[in-house]
Write a structure and sequence with these properties.
The protein is mainly alpha-helical. Helix content is 68%, strand content 0%.
Length: 270
């Protein structure tokens, strides 16, 4: 007699354990599909930015609040390094911290972001102090760090798969800012330029690691969920800016997110 499972989650876990893992090509396609449909380039705030419809204050507040996210990235990466027993992996991942913090004072992504802040007319020390960061932005960014802290190495690394879509967004952002916000010096856009090359290399390394280590369907699905979690955090950050500086008090409805879905194993209800 077949044992009945009391909860849908238990049955789903059993089903995942019985499924064969996807091929490398199908797995990467699944990650790309799920990530691209949830990436924050589609958020209303980004659409306003890229169409030239943000005011100076709204653009400044994006730069100011996003800086808090930038400061969390090296902390997140340090946590990932601490999870690995493999020196070769740690050496590869350590370069990410150097990319953001620089190898010496006055270098790195954080410095370039402060140059962006100066370029949009913000007081750099005020930005650096983090005093004016929206509570919801803090919650989202700190939640990402906590997610990485609590996750396995594989899931923590997989959460960085949003980098797959960053080069395209950065290129689009540079073009939009030069066209719509000419009062911002091109020299202030150095962070975006840097990330085009860095994100391309970083995302390739993440995909290789995830494909190499997600050897069961269950682990592949965990990677997809980690990617979705990160995408939701980035989306929430922009929700906070939209509600505070574009549509105060109105709330923002984001597109409904389906659960991770592998089309090969879709089921129809009876």
């Amino acid at each position: 007699m077949e044992r009945r499972v009391g909860r849908d989650g238990d049955q789903a876990m059993k089903d995942d354990q019985l499924r064969a893992p996807l091929s490398k090509e199908d797995f990467v396609e699944w990650l790309t599909r799920e990530g691209s449909t949830r990436y924050h380039d589609q958020h209303p705030f980004h659409k306003l930015m890229h169409e030239g419809n943000l005011t100076k204050v709204q653009l400044q507040q994006w730069v100011l609040n996003r800086y808090y996210y930038q400061t969390r990235i090296p902390i997140k990466d340090a946590l990932i390094v601490s999870k690995s027993e493999d020196p070769s992996f740690r050496r590869i991942w350590l370069h990410r911290i150097q990319d953001h913090d620089g190898q010496q004072e006055g270098e790195g992504g954080l410095t370039l972001w402060l140059e962006l802040a100066r370029g949009v007319g913000l007081d750099v020390e005020e930005v650096r102090s983090l005093r004016s960061v929206l509570p919801g932005v803090r919650l989202a960014c700190d939640g990402y760090v906590q997610f990485v802290r609590d996750s396995s190495l594989l899931e923590a690394v997989a959460s960085s798969l949003t980098e797959l879509f960053a080069p395209t967004l950065m290129s689009r952002r540079i073009e939009a800012w030069k066209h719509h916000y000419p009062w911002v010096s091109s020299d202030a856009l150095g962070y975006f330029q840097m990330r085009i090359a860095c994100a391309s290399l970083d995302s390739k390394q993440v995909v290789e690691f995830v494909v190499q280590h997600a050897l069961t369907y269950e682990l592949q699905e965990r990677c997809v969920r980690a990617l979705i979690k990160k995408a939701e955090i980035l989306w929430h950050l922009l929700d906070c800016l939209q509600m505070a500086y574009v549509e105060p008090g109105s709330g923002v409805k984001k597109a409904p997110y389906d659960q991770p879905h592998d089309r090969r194993h879709s089921q129809t209800s009876a």
